[in-house]
Amino acid sequence: MNRILSTAAAITVMSLGLQAADIPAAPKSYPEGEVGRMVKLGEAIMNETNTHPLTKDLVGNKLQCKSCHLKGADGKPGTGHGIGTFIGTATAFPAFSKREKTVQTLQDRINNCFMRSMNGKRPVIDTEASIAMATYITWLSEGLPMKMDTKRPCSPYNSERWAKNAKKFAQIQKKATHANYLNGQKIFAAKCASCHGDHGQGMGTFPPLWGKDAQGKWLSYNTGAGMSKLNKGAAWVQSNMPLGQGGTLSDQEAADVMLYVDAQPRADFDLAKGLLPKCEMGYYNSKVLKEHHSVRSNFKQFGLDIDAIRGDKKIP
Questions:
Q1: What is the tens place of the pLDDT at every residue in 52-70?
Q2: 1 burial class (0-12, 13-18, 19+ CB within 10 angstroms)?
Q3: Angle, vertex CA 206, rays to CA 313 and CA 203, nearest 5
Q4: Is the separation of the CB atoms in 232 and 166 below 8 Å?
Q5: Which of 199, 202, 221, 296 is the most exposed place for a label (fewest CB within 10 A)?
Q6: How does pLDDT run across 205-223, given as a tens digit for each residue?
Q7: Please, are residues 135 and 38 in contact by the beta-carbon 8 Å criterion?
Q8: The pTM is what?
Q9: How many C-beta atoms surround the C-beta of residue 168 within 10 A?
């Protein structure tokens, strides 16, 4: 598929809802000069988020951006074709966010992820790290037509399939029982543990999914992250996992395995704790200034009792 599509054809495709098969390849050549340097810096941060000098102090777990925004055949973070691709993302911004109840910029979207998926602190807008990450993601949309999203802040290649599948899995998860949890445990052991560890601790370069390390530090995303939501996590998993075999899990398998994963211990989310002091951070572009989530509240959102689902009382 050619990288440069005709504007009329591309917009027609976008209006119908894009799918993975429509996703073009990422650019092959970096821009010249300072812009190219920033693209490369942003790419490095995506690969090394929790250890990179510019972002490590803002990350509160062992994840990197590439943990959810998977590499494609070119080896670059966010160029995979599953839900979570970065390709096309910049074309959708500024975009409305129901969560923040404001129109968000691309930098807003990236930086807010640090509070949730990275279980850390929101970077300051217009710092080198923030600009570099936005520059990298924008580069991946080079040559694609702009079409701002009035519904949700994500790539046009993700928008409709994300919403459709999240709705589908919400209906499935509302019917979950302890038997589904046990089935999810079996699926995890058979198809996930070889990469993510028997206890979700991660293995080598494969990311952790829950729990704490030996020093008591949380390993993975907190309860404010999209992956912690039973419907959204299942939609992402079905699209991307097992690695290299996205689309092979049935609806019930994807629902059950994420029911199991998201029923495990992880950090609560408190929005206020993810924001730097106002004197450092500056203006926070959101109308929602108080937000709390826990494993228990995330299950309650779907009418589920975490104790009944797990069959114990180990979750606070």
A1: 999 999 999 999 999 999 9
A2: exposed
A3: 70
A4: yes
A5: 199
A6: 999 999 999 999 999 999 9
A7: yes
A8: 0.92
A9: 17
